[in-house]
Every structure is written in structure tokens, then in C-alpha cells.
Write a structure and sequence with these properties.
Distance between the termini: 39 Å
Number of domains: 2
Number of strands: 17
CATH class of the largest domain: Alpha Beta
Strand content: 25-35%
Radius of gyration: 21 Å
CATH architecture of the largest domain: 3-Layer(aba) Sandwich
Largest sheet: 11 strands, mixed
Order of helices and strands: HHEEEEEEEEHEEEHEHEEHEHEEH
Length: 349
């Protein structure tokens, strides 16, 4: 597992260079025909085991980019204005530690002692403080357009049972893909894609889908685990609403999201495979969010596509939590699927 390296690396959408280099170093002895395309996505091929008729071509995709911030301007007192890159809940930002290149800073907001309105936080009212005394000093160290990432270091919690770090959406999927490749070869040809700019519109995946034209695709993701304590007491006649997915219940299979409806036969195949391997699994059925599958499944003549996700608490925030056992179960499921899949498992007729 290279999740620690990937999580600690900086790689906001459009600036995935450090993440890309880690992945290239890891796959250069495994994949053939490794390519970095004009957008920056990494693709390669793991040949099928054995010889014979042309093998099924299965695309495995995970995106390298993460959400973060970008410098937009400076104040006379040396504070930095910024905007978001990707989807970030601005309510989580005040007080968070950030880095702009090698510079450390903190996101500030008018403290409670001087502000009676603590109910709403707007990004436009927040600033980053790196300790600069004035506008000239900060402008000499930071430039407009510089990326700002959360200053979070990967940690193992509870004796390594739980993993904490930034950018598990989707460095966890990238790490999973690397581990899948290490476990090969498989009866199918694996087309591996580490894509860019997913968080700002699935852009890298659109090019990958059109270029590689696979027979079938599996998207490896980190998704929102919504198994948090209820913040409101329940009335006597109310019951808990089932969360989207939970940490500890295995990999999450998407039914639909805002970007796609999963191929029903392919979903049934994954369920059958998980059951046969005695791997617990769960479902994501909310209509929100999206993955690279949203553009891959509509590329070329259409690509049957499914999504296998790792349930992570607090994604798109400075620190997410992932259960190692869920990671291991997802790895087993993807590997089993590659060993068993046939055209009959996804073709509609």
C-alpha cells in the first residue's frame, strides 16, 4: 500500500505532478506502454496471462487530483485571498492549517470575541495568514494562482486499524489500483488509468475513455461514509435513516449517482462475485456526486461501467478516515472480478 506517500503528496486539480511521479515510479516495472498524455493522465497496460484469443480489455481508473484552494489576491496587511478548487464546504475552513508550496499558513476568520454572527461562513470573508507584514512582503513570497493544500500528514490510528490523511478521494483509489496491478497478471488485459482533473468536471477521464476504448470499466474511488452520530434526537415514532454507506461494512457498489446509472448486469456480477468470495459489501444509491465513470461510460460506442468505492469519513476535508479492512476487502473484490469477468457479465443482449 502506497497510500501514505500518495496522501502526503500535493496534487490539486491541474497540478498533479508530484502524485503522478509517485505512481510512475511504482508502476514502471509492472505496466507496459506507459504513457502520460497531454492532460497529464497516466495510462498503461498489464497484459493478460497466457495466450490465445484476444483477451477482454478491462479499464481500471482512479483519479490523482484532490480538492483544495487557490490564491486570488492580497490585502494591504499581508493576508491572502483565495477561492476553492473543487467542492469544499466552506464551513470547515476557519482555523485550518494550509501550505502554499513550502510556506505554512492558517485560514483566519474574525474571532468570536469580535463577531456576534458565527452562524455562516463565507469563503469571501476568509483569509490565509502566513505571517507576512504587508502586501509587498506577501506578494514577494506568493503569487496569484498558487495552489493551496491542506497541511495534513498521514497517520495510522488504533494500531493501524484506521488510516487518517488528506485526499483519500481519490488517493485511496490510486493506491488500490497499484495494489491490484501488483497482484497480476489476470485472465483479462488490464488497462490502468490514473486520471487528472476529476474534481473539476471528470475532464481527464473523458480523454482516457475516448483514447483507450475498453470493453468494460471499473472505477476505483473514495466515497462519503455517512455513518456519523445523529445530531438531533429522534422522536418516539422515528427511526434512523440508513446512511449512504458505512465504514467497516466493506467496499461500496454504486447503483447510481449524479453522473451515471451503473450497468445492471455488471452490478449483479460484482454482487455475485463478492458473495462468492464471502466479501461483505454495501451500496451507494444517492443521486449526488459523480465519478470518472460519468464520462467513461459514454465514451466511444459506450462502455459498461461500474464503481467500487472505499467508504471514507470526512472526504473533501483536511483529514479523512478509512478502515484498513475495507481497503483489503475492496482489493480482494477487484482482483476476483478480474479473474472471473466475461462478456456475458455486462452485455445487455
Amino acid at each position: 500500500m502506497i497510500l501514505e506517500q500518495l496522501s502526503n503528496a500535493v496534487g490539486l486539480s491541474g497540478s498533479e505532478d508530484a502524485v503522478r511521479q509517485i505512481i510512475l515510479d511504482e508502476v514502471k516495472g509492472t505496466l507496459q506502454d506507459i504513457t502520460v498524455n497531454s492532460m497529464g493522465s497516466v495510462t498503461g497496460r498489464l497484459p493478460a496471462a497466457g495466450r490465445g484469443k484476444p483477451p477482454l480489455r478491462v479499464l481500471l481508473a482512479a483519479h490523482m487530483d484532490e480538492v483544495g484552494l487557490m490564491v486570488t489576491g492580497f490585502e494591504s496587511d499581508g493576508l491572502i485571498r483565495f477561492t476553492n478548487v473543487g467542492g469544499i464546504d466552506e464551513r470547515i475552513l476557519p482555523g485550518k492549517r494550509v501550505k502554499i508550496g513550502a510556506l505554512q499558513g492558517v485560514i483566519i476568520w474574525t474571532p468570536i470575541h469580535k463577531n456576534n454572527d458565527q452562524n455562516a461562513v463565507k469563503m469571501s470573508s476568509l483569509r490565509i495568514d502566513i505571517g507576512a507584514a504587508n502586501k509587498d512582503e506577501v506578494a514577494g513570497k506568493v503569487k496569484r494562482g498558487d495552489r493551496v493544500n491542506f497541511d495534513t500528514q498521514f497517520r495510522e490510528l488504533d494500531g493501524g486499524r484506521m488510516l487518517r490523511g488528506k485526499a483519500f478521494d481519490d488517493r485511496a483509489g490510486c493506491s488500490l489500483l497499484v495494489d491490484v496491478l501488483r497482484g497480476g497478471p489476470y485472465p483479462v488485459e488490464v488497462l490502468a488509468a490514473f486520471t487528472v482533473q476529476e474534481e473539476i468536471g471528470l475532464r481527464g477521464a473523458q480523454v482516457v475513455g475516448q483514447t483507450l476504448q475498453p470493453d468494460v470499466a471499473l472505477i476505483l474511488e473514495g466515497t462519503t461514509a455517512n455513518d456519523l452520530p445523529s445530531l438531533s434526537p429522534l422522536a418516539d415514532d422515528e427511526t434512523e435513516i440508513n446512511p449512504t454507506c458505512c465504514v467497516g461494512k466493506g467496499p461500496t457498489l454504486t447503483i447510481q449517482d449524479a453522473s451515471m446509472i451503473v450497468n445492471p448486469k455488471l452490478l449483479a456480477f460484482l454482487k455475485k462475485t463478492a458473495a462468492g468470495e464471502e466479501i461483505p459489501y454495501q451500496f451507494k444509491s444517492t443521486a449526488g456526486g459523480g465519478t470518472d465513470g460519468g464520462t467513461i461510460h459514454t465514451s466511444g460506442r459506450g462502455v459498461p461501467t461500474a464503481v467500487i468505492s472505499l467508504p471514507c469519513r470526512y472526504i473533501h476535508s483536511p483529514a479523512a478516515l478509512l478502515l484498513r479492512e475495507d481497503y483489503d476487502r475492496a482489493l480482494r473484490l477487484v482482483q476476483a472480478a478480474l479473474r472471473k469477468i466475461t462478456p456475458a457479465d455486462y452485455q445487455q443482449v
